[in-house]
Design a protein that fits this description.
about 230 residues, 3-stranded antiparallel beta sheet, elongated
Length: about 230
């Protein structure tokens, strides 16, 4: 575990990664990757399959939620799916009836729900346990809902912002798009967006991220891009 990462965060991260490996066994897991589509943000966990990206923001018991809406917005611009993995300390209390209650206090029933303002992301509450009373009929937070795999769905074009300059240059070469060593990143991204299909860009971005040498990630995966 890196020195800058708390044990509280590592605990949530380990559970998140285990679930992703269970449901997307072919995806490469990358930790701490920068993205600048909506201000400078760092994605905690990125799962990159051949043509699908899942982005995860982790909020442990030692974190705050003030930046989460902006982080979710940024991640939605580069990934197919966004997950916010929150420690249960962030749940807020709400009075309810006995059929939905998590607990009873002074003759009244209460549940704990996800805070307002968190949208456009799948929310996983850590730990993954049932919180409802035995009599309760449903507990919407008990199980982590995993996103359906999006077959034949393109990444947002801003996903190119995750690539380094040399990766953009290599991608231009792969798709036979004119670029030189003097071409800047903006020029190459504009050329790729103009000349490539959504399918091309999705597979190209995933190929580059799966092959990138990272400080903290699964081993590099270098494959041929299928036609």
């Amino acid at each position: 575990m890196p020195a800058y990462r708390s044990s509280a965060e590592a605990e949530v991260r380990d559970a998140v990664v285990a679930r992703i490996r269970e449901r997307r066994p072919n995806a490469r897991i990358i930790h701490e990757i920068n993205v600048s589509t909506y201000g400078p943000n760092r994605i905690d966990v990125l799962a990159v399959d051949r043509a699908e990206i899942i982005s995860v923001e982790i909020k442990s018991a030692k974190d705050k939620l003030d930046r989460l809406p902006a982080q979710i917005e940024s991640m939605n611009r580069v990934a197919h799916h966004v997950v916010a993995a929150l420690h249960e300390k962030f749940l807020v209390e709400q009075e309810t009836n006995q059929w939905a209650a998590h607990y009873e206090r002074d003759g009244k029933f209460y549940l704990r729900r996800v805070p307002d303002g968190i949208k456009d992301a799948e929310v996983w509450v850590y730990p993954e346990i049932r919180r409802a009373m035995p009599i309760a009929e449903h507990d919407g937070l008990a199980r982590w809902r995993f996103p359906d795999q999006r077959v034949e769905t393109s990444l947002p074009s801003a996903a190119l912002d995750m690539l380094w300059r040399d990766e953009l240059y290599e991608l231009c070469g792969m798709f036979r798009i004119s670029a030189t060593r003097r071409s800047n990143m903006s020029e190459m991204m504009a050329a790729l967006r103009w000349n490539c299909t959504g399918k091309d860009l999705t597979r190209g971005v995933c190929w580059m991220l799966r092959a990138r040498r990272c400080v903290e990630a699964d081993p590099e995966i270098v494959e041929r891009i299928a036609a």
